[in-house]
Each structure stands twice: as structure tokens, then as C-alpha cells.
Write a structure and sequence with these properties.
The protein is an alpha/beta fold. It folds into 3 domains: 161 residues, Spore Coat Polysaccharide Biosynthesis Protein SpsA, Chain A (Alpha-Beta Complex), CATH 3.90.550.10; 71 residues, Serine Threonine Protein Phosphatase 5, Tetratricopeptide repeat (Alpha Horseshoe); 102 residues, Tetratricopeptide repeat domain (Serine Threonine Protein Phosphatase 5, Tetratricopeptide repeat). Helices cover 50% and strands 18% of the residues. It contains 16 helices and 12 strands. Strands 1, 2, 3, 4, 5, 6, 7, 10, 11 and 12 form a 10-stranded mixed β-sheet that branches. A two-stranded antiparallel sheet has the order 8-9. α8 packs antiparallel against α9, α9 packs antiparallel against α10 and α10 packs parallel to α13. 39% of the residues are buried.
């Protein structure tokens, strides 16, 4: 038996869309209401779901634990209201495979954001399905995670799409929770709160303060993937603050830790371009095109491993007067995004400048 659980507040339309994507997939649905002014009890009744009321206390983990406690399935699956289950028909098969492997937790990809043409932009894996006897417990007031026992099973045969309504933001809610949490949290929780407070500050353009928290995080981090991300974010904050020499040196530091991360190469190219070092920019963007996409369950920024460095290169080579290389870069972009009118136009323009014989 598999239970599906949600926590929700004023998201009736999104919740109904998410439920439609999960129709006839789960044995039980639990909807945990954290303070709706909309008609969530009626929606729960219409879908045959168990309705639970939770008094909101600025703690997402507490709300999710209440939702998990109300579920009665052998496996518990969680979703957010702005998410849609894709390839749902594969779920039962993957649960059986996980059980055969002796796993208690199933991780699968979340397509967090897409570009305007629908191309995935940011993808990462999250633990979504837990055996009840693995004792899953949510922790951290925001950017919460599950702590549980048992082996993990990772699959890409089931996928979730994040589809928030256009223009929706959380305002400063998460930032305020994180600021309070980092002061009151136990010592073992401070690294995670530090990382996500820094990240939240970047969303609000508070580059100076974000950089300070990322710098605080690096020496206390126990997670290599997040440490590598923090080192790059320090460089990015410096770049946003127009401190280009610092951004450059901090990119080198990030690459010393993890040379398989593409973003520092791209940022080094941008720093070179901004200082009119076009040949240096060409070298760094070219280096970025040779970085293979890592096999990771952490954040994967797909444009960096596909068309983005080629997009920069077509401009750099054009400014250097090398129309042939600019055309090749434009073609690479077009192959990744064949419906992009700008890339198609660039290819047509450069073919005309290079000449048909050379272009072929």
C-alpha cells in the first residue's frame, strides 16, 4: 500500500492539478492543511482523501511530519502542490524493483525549471518514497530533508515536474525563517541553515551578505557537492559585486576543489570577456564545452553542459573576426535548441558571411 501526502495552503487549483497527475496511482491520499482560506476540505472529500489540519508554526518539517503520521501505507510518497507526476505508470514497477533490492528509500529526478521552449534547465534528485518501517523523519524548518534508515534506490524512470504558477514568489518568507533558525538552531543544523540562508540571499540580490555566509559555510561543510557549489557561489557573488579579480581567483579555488563543475569555466569566460580579453574568453568557454555532465544527484544546470558555452563562443568568435568558428558555435547552439529563432537566424547570417562552400 502506497500513501501520497501533501501539505498545502491556499493552493487549491495547483493541488487539484497535481492530484489529477496522480490519479489511480496511489492507495491513499493525505492532505495536510496548514491554514487554507480556500476550500481544501471539500476538495479532499471530492478526491476521497484524508484531511488533516495543522496549525502553521513557520516549520515545514513539522508540517510534513504531521502529514506522514496521518498516512497508513507501507510506503509514503510526498509531493508539493505545484508538482506533477510524470511517467506515473512506471511507479509500481520501480517500487517492486526497490523492494527486490532491499531498499527503503527511492530517489528520482525533479525537473525544477524549464526554459521558455520547454527545455529542462535545472534538474536534481530528491528522495520521494519511504518505507514506513524506515522511520522517516523530516528535519529543518525550511529546505527540509528526510532522515531515515535503510538503503537508497535511485531511478530516472519516474520523474516529477515542478510547475509553479507564473509570477508566484515566496516573498521573504523563507528568508525570515532562515534568519531566525540560524540563531536558534542546534550546532549540528547550522551548516545546512548557513548554506540555504546564503542561497536565499542570492535570490534577493543581497550579494555581499550571501558571500559572507557562503564563506562561513565552506569550512564547516560535510557535503562535497554542496561545498563545491558554495565555492562557485562565492565567485558568482563577487562577479555580481563587480569585483572581477576576486571572482576570477575564487573560480580557480572552486575548480581546485572540483574541476568537473562547468559553471566556474563559464564564469571565467565572462570575466575575460568583460575585461576585453577575447582570446582568454574563447579559451575558457571552449574549456566549458569539454566538461562532461557529471553523474550526480545534486543540482545539474543543464544549459552549462549543453548550449550555453557555445552561445558565448559564437559572440566571442564573431568579435574576433573568425566567422567560420562563430558559425560552428551557432550550429552547436541550434542543434541543442532547434526551435530557437535566434540561433536559426545566427546560422543563416553567418552562412551568408562565410560563404556556402566554406560553410558546408
Amino acid at each position: 500500500m502506497i500513501s501520497l501526502v501533501y501539505i498545502t495552503k491556499d493552493e487549491t487549483a495547483l493541488l487539484e492539478r497535481s492530484l489529477r497527475s496522480c490519479k489511480n496511482v496511489f492507495d491513499e491520499v493525505v492532505i495536510c492543511d496548514t491554514g487554507n482560506s480556500q476550500f481544501t476540505p471539500e476538495l479532499a472529500s471530492r478526491w476521497g482523501a484524508k484531511y488533516v489540519r495543522f496549525e502553521w508554526c513557520d516549520d515545514f518539517a513539522a508540517a510534513r511530519n504531521a502529514a506522514f503520521a496521518a498516512a497508513s501505507g507501507d510506503w509514503i510518497w510526498w509531493m508539493d502542490c505545484d508538482e506533477v507526476l510524470a511517467t506515473a505508470h512506471m511507479l509500481s514497477r520501480e517500487v517492486q524493483a526497490a523492494e527486490s533490492a532491499g531498499a527503503a528509500v527511492i530517489s528520482l529526478p525533479l525537473v525544477y525549471s524549464r526554459e521558455s521552449d520547454g527545455t529542462p534547465e535545472l534538474t536534481y534528485y530528491r528522495e520521494r518514497l519511504f518505507r514506513r518501517d524506515a522511520n522517516p523523519i523530516w528535519r529543518y524548518r525550511v529546505h527540509e530533508v528526510v532522515i531515515c534508515e535503510g538503503r537508497r534506490y535511485v531511478t530516472d524512470k519516474v520523474r516529477i515536474d515542478h510547475r509553479p504558477p507564473e509570477g508566484r514568489t515566496d516573498g521573504r518568507r523563507n528568508l525570515e525563517i532562515l534568519r531566525e533558525a540560524i540563531v536558534t538552531c542546534p550546532a549540528d543544523e547550522r551548516p545546512r541553515y548557513t548554506f540555504y540562508l546564503a542561497k536565499e540571499l542570492t535570490y534577493h540580490g543581497d550579494w555581499q551578505e550571501a558571500r559572507e555566509y557562503f564563506r562561513e559555510y565552506v569550512p564547516i561543510s560535510a557535503y562535497p557537492a554542496e561545498k563545491a557549489r558554495a565555492l562557485y557561489e562565492i565567485a558568482w557573488c563577487s562577479y555580481q559585486l563587480k569585483e572581477l579579480p576576486a571572482a576570477k581567483s575564487e573560480c580557480f579555488r572552486a575548480l581546485e576543489f572540483d574541476d568537473g563543475c562547468v559553471e566556474p569555466y563559464i564564469l571565467l569566460g565572462r570575466v575575460a570577456y568583460d575585461t576585453d580579453d577575447l582570446r582568454g574568453a574563447a579559451r575558457w568557454f571552449s574549456a566549458a564545452t569539454m566538461v562532461p555532465k557529471p553523474d550526480t544527484v545534486f543540482f545539474s544546470y543543464l544549459p552549462g553542459y549543453t548550449y550555453e558555452p557555445w552561445d558565448h563562443l559564437q559572440v566571442v568568435y564573431w568579435r574576433l573576426g573568425d566567422r567560420r568558428k562563430a558559425l560552428e558555435a551557432a550550429r552547436r547552439c541550434w542543434r541543442y535548441k532547434p526551435n530557437d529563432a535566434r540561433y536559426a537566424g545566427n546560422v543563416a547570417l553567418l552562412k551568408g558571411e562565410v560563404g556556402d562552400d566554406e560553410a558546408s
